[in-house]
Amino acid sequence: MTARTPRLSRLRRLTPGRGEDGAGRSGRSGRRRGATPKVVALGGGQGLSASLAALRRITGDLTAVVTVADDGGSSGRLREELGVLPPGDLRKALAALCGDDDWGQTWARVIQHRFQSEGDLHGHAVGNLLIVALWEQLGDPVQALDLVGKLLGAQGRVLPMSAVPLELQALVRGHDPARPEDVDTVRGQATVALTPGEVLSVQVVPGDPPAVPEAVAAVLDADWVVLGPGSWFSSVIPHLLVPELLDALMETKARRVLSLNLAPQPGETEGFSPQRHLEVLARHAPKLALDVVLADEAAVPDRESLADAAKRFGAAVELAPVARQDGSPKHDPELLAAAYDRIFRMHGRIGPWR
Predict the structure, then answer these.
(1) Burial of 10 (0-12, 13-18, 19+ CB in 10 A)
(2) 45-54 pLDDT, tens per residue?
(3) Which of 89, 113, 151, 188 gets the highest tally of CB atoms within 10 A of its CB?
(4) Which of 293, 210, 235 is nearest to 72 (CA)?
Protein backbone atom coordinates (compact mmCIF):
# COMPACT_ATOMS: atom_id res chain seq x y z
CA MET A 1 0.00 0.00 0.00
CA THR A 2 1.29 3.45 -0.75
CA ALA A 3 1.91 6.41 1.52
CA ARG A 4 -1.61 7.62 0.78
CA THR A 5 -3.22 4.78 2.72
CA PRO A 6 -3.42 6.68 6.07
CA ARG A 7 -5.38 9.44 4.33
CA LEU A 8 -7.75 6.85 2.84
CA SER A 9 -8.16 5.27 6.26
CA ARG A 10 -9.15 8.63 7.70
CA LEU A 11 -11.69 9.08 4.92
CA ARG A 12 -13.06 5.63 5.67
CA ARG A 13 -13.44 6.40 9.36
CA LEU A 14 -15.22 9.66 8.57
CA THR A 15 -17.68 8.08 6.12
CA PRO A 16 -21.07 7.62 7.85
CA GLY A 17 -22.57 4.19 8.31
CA ARG A 18 -19.39 2.12 8.24
CA GLY A 19 -19.50 0.30 11.55
CA GLU A 20 -17.19 -2.73 11.65
CA ASP A 21 -18.74 -6.18 11.81
CA GLY A 22 -17.15 -9.24 13.38
CA ALA A 23 -15.56 -10.33 10.11
CA GLY A 24 -13.91 -6.98 9.47
CA ARG A 25 -16.54 -6.00 6.91
CA SER A 26 -17.67 -2.43 7.28
CA GLY A 27 -21.33 -2.10 8.05
CA ARG A 28 -22.42 -5.15 6.03
CA SER A 29 -23.86 -7.39 8.75
CA GLY A 30 -25.95 -4.50 10.05
CA ARG A 31 -27.50 -3.68 6.69
CA ARG A 32 -31.26 -3.43 6.92
CA ARG A 33 -32.99 -6.38 5.29
CA GLY A 34 -34.47 -5.28 1.98
CA ALA A 35 -31.95 -2.45 1.45
CA THR A 36 -30.20 -2.24 -1.90
CA PRO A 37 -26.41 -2.49 -2.33
CA LYS A 38 -24.21 0.57 -2.58
CA VAL A 39 -22.68 0.41 -6.06
CA VAL A 40 -19.97 2.58 -7.61
CA ALA A 41 -19.42 2.36 -11.37
CA LEU A 42 -16.19 3.65 -12.93
CA GLY A 43 -15.66 4.44 -16.60
CA GLY A 44 -16.63 6.90 -19.27
CA GLY A 45 -18.47 7.36 -22.52
CA GLN A 46 -20.96 4.87 -23.92
CA GLY A 47 -19.58 1.96 -21.91
CA LEU A 48 -20.26 3.61 -18.58
CA SER A 49 -23.66 4.77 -19.80
CA ALA A 50 -24.59 1.16 -20.62
CA SER A 51 -23.50 0.01 -17.17
CA LEU A 52 -25.43 2.80 -15.42
CA ALA A 53 -28.59 2.16 -17.44
CA ALA A 54 -28.44 -1.43 -16.16
CA LEU A 55 -27.40 -0.75 -12.57
CA ARG A 56 -30.11 1.85 -11.91
CA ARG A 57 -32.64 -0.95 -12.48
CA ILE A 58 -31.35 -2.98 -9.54
CA THR A 59 -30.10 -0.50 -6.94
CA GLY A 60 -31.23 2.81 -5.53
CA ASP A 61 -27.75 3.66 -4.23
CA LEU A 62 -25.59 4.25 -7.30
CA THR A 63 -22.59 6.53 -7.91
CA ALA A 64 -20.79 7.04 -11.21
CA VAL A 65 -17.12 8.05 -11.14
CA VAL A 66 -16.27 9.43 -14.56
CA THR A 67 -13.00 9.94 -16.42
CA VAL A 68 -11.98 13.53 -17.24
CA ALA A 69 -9.44 13.06 -20.04
CA ASP A 70 -11.73 13.75 -23.03
CA ASP A 71 -10.32 16.40 -25.35
CA GLY A 72 -12.45 16.01 -28.48
CA GLY A 73 -15.66 17.53 -29.80
CA SER A 74 -17.73 19.90 -27.69
CA SER A 75 -15.93 18.86 -24.49
CA GLY A 76 -12.54 19.59 -25.98
CA ARG A 77 -13.62 23.00 -27.21
CA LEU A 78 -15.04 24.01 -23.81
CA ARG A 79 -12.02 22.61 -22.03
CA GLU A 80 -9.61 24.57 -24.24
CA GLU A 81 -11.57 27.82 -24.15
CA LEU A 82 -12.60 27.88 -20.48
CA GLY A 83 -10.08 25.61 -18.77
CA VAL A 84 -12.82 23.44 -17.26
CA LEU A 85 -13.16 19.70 -16.79
CA PRO A 86 -14.46 18.08 -19.99
CA PRO A 87 -18.22 17.76 -19.35
CA GLY A 88 -19.19 15.28 -22.08
CA ASP A 89 -18.77 11.95 -20.29
CA LEU A 90 -20.31 13.44 -17.15
CA ARG A 91 -23.32 14.51 -19.22
CA LYS A 92 -23.68 11.05 -20.75
CA ALA A 93 -23.62 9.49 -17.28
CA LEU A 94 -26.34 11.85 -16.06
CA ALA A 95 -28.48 11.03 -19.11
CA ALA A 96 -28.07 7.30 -18.44
CA LEU A 97 -29.32 7.80 -14.88
CA CYS A 98 -32.53 9.53 -16.01
CA GLY A 99 -35.67 7.57 -15.27
CA ASP A 100 -37.92 5.90 -17.83
CA ASP A 101 -40.84 8.26 -17.10
CA ASP A 102 -41.70 11.25 -19.30
CA TRP A 103 -39.72 13.67 -17.11
CA GLY A 104 -36.57 11.57 -17.16
CA GLN A 105 -36.66 10.74 -20.86
CA THR A 106 -37.47 14.32 -21.86
CA TRP A 107 -34.51 15.68 -19.90
CA ALA A 108 -32.24 12.91 -21.19
CA ARG A 109 -33.03 14.00 -24.75
CA VAL A 110 -32.61 17.70 -23.90
CA ILE A 111 -29.15 17.42 -22.35
CA GLN A 112 -27.99 15.11 -25.17
CA HIS A 113 -29.28 17.48 -27.86
CA ARG A 114 -26.58 19.01 -30.05
CA PHE A 115 -26.98 22.30 -31.87
CA GLN A 116 -26.74 22.22 -35.66
CA SER A 117 -25.65 25.51 -37.17
CA GLU A 118 -23.05 27.27 -39.26
CA GLY A 119 -21.73 29.16 -36.24
CA ASP A 120 -19.80 28.64 -33.02
CA LEU A 121 -22.59 26.68 -31.33
CA HIS A 122 -22.45 23.89 -33.89
CA GLY A 123 -21.86 20.52 -32.27
CA HIS A 124 -22.19 21.74 -28.69
CA ALA A 125 -24.42 19.61 -26.47
CA VAL A 126 -27.00 21.42 -24.34
CA GLY A 127 -25.96 19.42 -21.29
CA ASN A 128 -22.32 20.41 -21.67
CA LEU A 129 -23.25 24.10 -21.66
CA LEU A 130 -25.58 23.64 -18.68
CA ILE A 131 -22.94 21.83 -16.63
CA VAL A 132 -20.21 24.37 -17.41
CA ALA A 133 -22.54 27.28 -16.64
CA LEU A 134 -23.27 25.82 -13.20
CA TRP A 135 -19.57 25.19 -12.61
CA GLU A 136 -18.90 28.87 -13.25
CA GLN A 137 -21.87 29.96 -11.10
CA LEU A 138 -21.12 27.70 -8.13
CA GLY A 139 -17.36 27.25 -8.36
CA ASP A 140 -17.76 23.65 -7.22
CA PRO A 141 -17.88 20.83 -9.83
CA VAL A 142 -19.43 18.30 -7.44
CA GLN A 143 -22.14 20.64 -6.17
CA ALA A 144 -22.99 21.63 -9.75
CA LEU A 145 -23.29 18.02 -10.91
CA ASP A 146 -25.49 17.21 -7.91
CA LEU A 147 -27.75 20.12 -8.86
CA VAL A 148 -28.01 18.96 -12.48
CA GLY A 149 -28.82 15.47 -11.25
CA LYS A 150 -31.58 16.86 -9.04
CA LEU A 151 -33.05 18.78 -11.98
CA LEU A 152 -33.06 15.66 -14.15
CA GLY A 153 -34.37 13.39 -11.44
CA ALA A 154 -31.25 11.25 -11.94
CA GLN A 155 -31.36 7.91 -10.17
CA GLY A 156 -27.85 8.15 -8.79
CA ARG A 157 -24.93 10.51 -8.39
CA VAL A 158 -22.26 11.51 -10.92
CA LEU A 159 -18.73 12.52 -9.87
CA PRO A 160 -15.55 13.32 -11.81
CA MET A 161 -12.65 11.03 -10.95
CA SER A 162 -10.19 13.93 -10.66
CA ALA A 163 -10.49 17.59 -9.75
CA VAL A 164 -8.37 18.68 -12.75
CA PRO A 165 -8.68 18.00 -16.48
CA LEU A 166 -6.22 15.30 -17.54
CA GLU A 167 -4.26 14.72 -20.73
CA LEU A 168 -3.97 11.13 -21.90
CA GLN A 169 -0.62 10.06 -23.33
CA ALA A 170 0.06 6.67 -24.89
CA LEU A 171 3.02 4.72 -26.18
CA VAL A 172 1.90 3.40 -29.56
CA ARG A 173 3.70 1.06 -31.92
CA GLY A 174 2.97 1.84 -35.55
CA HIS A 175 1.00 5.04 -35.00
CA ASP A 176 2.54 6.17 -38.28
CA PRO A 177 1.72 3.41 -40.80
CA ALA A 178 4.88 4.34 -42.69
CA ARG A 179 6.93 3.31 -39.62
CA PRO A 180 5.09 0.20 -38.34
CA GLU A 181 7.78 -0.86 -35.86
CA ASP A 182 8.46 2.54 -34.31
CA VAL A 183 7.02 3.45 -30.90
CA ASP A 184 5.74 7.01 -30.56
CA THR A 185 4.18 9.03 -27.76
CA VAL A 186 0.64 9.94 -28.79
CA ARG A 187 -1.13 12.72 -26.90
CA GLY A 188 -4.83 13.31 -26.38
CA GLN A 189 -7.75 10.97 -25.73
CA ALA A 190 -9.32 11.56 -29.13
CA THR A 191 -6.06 10.73 -30.93
CA VAL A 192 -5.34 7.66 -28.81
CA ALA A 193 -8.85 6.32 -29.38
CA LEU A 194 -8.42 6.44 -33.16
CA THR A 195 -4.79 5.39 -33.55
CA PRO A 196 -4.16 2.79 -36.27
CA GLY A 197 -1.25 1.46 -34.21
CA GLU A 198 -0.94 -0.83 -31.20
CA VAL A 199 -1.36 0.92 -27.84
CA LEU A 200 1.27 -0.42 -25.45
CA SER A 201 0.56 1.69 -22.36
CA VAL A 202 -1.08 4.91 -21.24
CA GLN A 203 -0.43 7.54 -18.62
CA VAL A 204 -2.09 10.77 -17.57
CA VAL A 205 -0.68 14.27 -17.26
CA PRO A 206 -0.29 15.54 -14.59
CA GLY A 207 1.12 12.24 -13.39
CA ASP A 208 -0.17 12.50 -9.81
CA PRO A 209 -3.60 14.08 -10.26
CA PRO A 210 -5.78 14.79 -7.23
CA ALA A 211 -8.80 12.55 -6.86
CA VAL A 212 -12.17 14.05 -6.03
CA PRO A 213 -12.60 13.25 -2.29
CA GLU A 214 -16.26 12.30 -2.76
CA ALA A 215 -15.23 9.74 -5.38
CA VAL A 216 -12.66 8.20 -3.04
CA ALA A 217 -15.19 8.10 -0.20
CA ALA A 218 -17.80 6.46 -2.44
CA VAL A 219 -15.39 3.67 -3.41
CA LEU A 220 -14.43 3.08 0.20
CA ASP A 221 -18.06 2.94 1.30
CA ALA A 222 -19.34 0.73 -1.53
CA ASP A 223 -20.63 -2.82 -1.41
CA TRP A 224 -19.74 -3.32 -5.08
CA VAL A 225 -17.44 -1.49 -7.48
CA VAL A 226 -17.97 -2.01 -11.22
CA LEU A 227 -15.13 -1.15 -13.62
CA GLY A 228 -15.95 -1.08 -17.34
CA PRO A 229 -17.13 -1.69 -19.95
CA GLY A 230 -15.79 1.08 -22.17
CA SER A 231 -12.82 2.26 -24.22
CA TRP A 232 -10.08 0.30 -22.51
CA PHE A 233 -7.17 2.72 -22.68
CA SER A 234 -9.12 5.99 -22.60
CA SER A 235 -12.08 5.29 -20.27
CA VAL A 236 -11.30 2.26 -18.09
CA ILE A 237 -7.57 2.25 -17.33
CA PRO A 238 -7.32 6.03 -16.56
CA HIS A 239 -9.13 5.45 -13.26
CA LEU A 240 -6.19 3.29 -12.20
CA LEU A 241 -3.77 6.14 -12.96
CA VAL A 242 -5.20 8.44 -10.28
CA PRO A 243 -3.15 7.31 -7.25
CA GLU A 244 -5.69 8.06 -4.52
CA LEU A 245 -8.45 6.38 -6.49
CA LEU A 246 -6.31 3.30 -7.14
CA ASP A 247 -5.44 3.16 -3.43
CA ALA A 248 -9.15 3.31 -2.62
CA LEU A 249 -9.86 0.47 -5.06
CA MET A 250 -7.25 -1.67 -3.31
CA GLU A 251 -8.28 -0.57 0.19
CA THR A 252 -12.06 -0.90 -0.14
CA LYS A 253 -13.90 -3.84 1.39
CA ALA A 254 -16.27 -3.76 -1.58
CA ARG A 255 -16.37 -6.57 -4.09
CA ARG A 256 -15.03 -5.61 -7.51
CA VAL A 257 -16.50 -6.53 -10.89
CA LEU A 258 -14.71 -5.98 -14.20
CA SER A 259 -17.19 -5.84 -17.08
CA LEU A 260 -15.59 -6.65 -20.44
CA ASN A 261 -16.48 -5.15 -23.79
CA LEU A 262 -18.50 -7.09 -26.33
CA ALA A 263 -15.90 -6.66 -29.09
CA PRO A 264 -12.48 -5.09 -29.66
CA GLN A 265 -12.58 -1.42 -30.60
CA PRO A 266 -11.11 -0.25 -33.90
CA GLY A 267 -7.86 1.52 -33.16
CA GLU A 268 -7.51 1.19 -29.39
CA THR A 269 -7.92 -2.56 -28.94
CA GLU A 270 -8.02 -3.92 -32.50
CA GLY A 271 -7.39 -7.67 -32.39
CA PHE A 272 -7.58 -7.92 -28.58
CA SER A 273 -8.95 -11.13 -27.10
CA PRO A 274 -10.92 -10.91 -23.83
CA GLN A 275 -7.90 -12.19 -21.91
CA ARG A 276 -5.65 -9.60 -23.58
CA HIS A 277 -7.81 -6.88 -22.02
CA LEU A 278 -7.03 -8.35 -18.59
CA GLU A 279 -3.31 -8.63 -19.33
CA VAL A 280 -3.17 -4.94 -20.26
CA LEU A 281 -5.08 -4.00 -17.12
CA ALA A 282 -2.63 -6.00 -14.99
CA ARG A 283 0.33 -4.14 -16.50
CA HIS A 284 -1.15 -0.83 -15.40
CA ALA A 285 -2.30 -1.96 -11.94
CA PRO A 286 -0.40 -5.13 -11.00
CA LYS A 287 -1.60 -5.10 -7.36
CA LEU A 288 -5.29 -4.66 -8.14
CA ALA A 289 -7.55 -7.53 -7.06
CA LEU A 290 -10.90 -8.38 -8.60
CA ASP A 291 -13.69 -10.68 -7.54
CA VAL A 292 -15.63 -11.24 -10.77
CA VAL A 293 -14.95 -10.76 -14.47
CA LEU A 294 -18.19 -10.47 -16.45
CA ALA A 295 -18.22 -11.23 -20.17
CA ASP A 296 -20.80 -11.97 -22.82
CA GLU A 297 -20.83 -15.71 -23.40
CA ALA A 298 -20.83 -15.30 -27.18
CA ALA A 299 -17.77 -13.00 -27.09
CA VAL A 300 -15.40 -15.49 -25.41
CA PRO A 301 -13.99 -18.04 -27.86
CA ASP A 302 -11.39 -19.35 -25.37
CA ARG A 303 -12.97 -19.67 -21.94
CA GLU A 304 -10.00 -21.45 -20.38
CA SER A 305 -7.57 -18.66 -21.31
CA LEU A 306 -9.93 -16.03 -19.93
CA ALA A 307 -10.29 -17.98 -16.69
CA ASP A 308 -6.49 -18.20 -16.38
CA ALA A 309 -6.13 -14.45 -16.94
CA ALA A 310 -8.83 -13.74 -14.35
CA LYS A 311 -7.04 -15.91 -11.76
CA ARG A 312 -4.17 -13.42 -11.76
CA PHE A 313 -6.60 -10.95 -10.19
CA GLY A 314 -8.12 -13.59 -7.90
CA ALA A 315 -11.36 -13.37 -9.87
CA ALA A 316 -13.99 -15.80 -11.06
CA VAL A 317 -15.41 -15.51 -14.59
CA GLU A 318 -19.15 -15.09 -15.08
CA LEU A 319 -20.50 -15.55 -18.61
CA ALA A 320 -23.96 -14.28 -19.45
CA PRO A 321 -25.89 -13.09 -22.50
CA VAL A 322 -25.65 -9.31 -22.18
CA ALA A 323 -25.59 -8.14 -25.82
CA ARG A 324 -28.49 -6.66 -27.75
CA GLN A 325 -30.24 -9.10 -30.02
CA ASP A 326 -29.81 -6.91 -33.12
CA GLY A 327 -26.20 -8.03 -33.57
CA SER A 328 -24.67 -4.68 -32.65
CA PRO A 329 -21.77 -4.66 -30.15
CA LYS A 330 -23.89 -2.90 -27.54
CA HIS A 331 -25.11 -4.03 -24.14
CA ASP A 332 -28.79 -4.65 -23.54
CA PRO A 333 -29.74 -2.78 -20.34
CA GLU A 334 -32.17 -5.43 -19.13
CA LEU A 335 -29.83 -8.35 -19.81
CA LEU A 336 -26.88 -6.54 -18.27
CA ALA A 337 -29.00 -5.67 -15.23
CA ALA A 338 -29.93 -9.33 -14.83
CA ALA A 339 -26.25 -10.32 -15.01
CA TYR A 340 -25.22 -7.76 -12.40
CA ASP A 341 -28.10 -8.77 -10.13
CA ARG A 342 -27.10 -12.41 -10.36
CA ILE A 343 -23.47 -11.58 -9.56
CA PHE A 344 -24.42 -9.42 -6.59
CA ARG A 345 -26.55 -12.22 -5.18
CA MET A 346 -24.19 -15.12 -5.88
CA HIS A 347 -20.90 -13.48 -4.94
CA GLY A 348 -22.02 -11.18 -2.12
CA ARG A 349 -20.89 -11.83 1.41
CA ILE A 350 -24.38 -11.31 2.77
CA GLY A 351 -27.81 -12.50 1.70
CA PRO A 352 -29.99 -10.97 -1.02
CA TRP A 353 -30.80 -7.28 -0.72
CA ARG A 354 -34.27 -7.76 -2.08
Answers:
(1) exposed
(2) 899 999 999 9
(3) 89
(4) 235
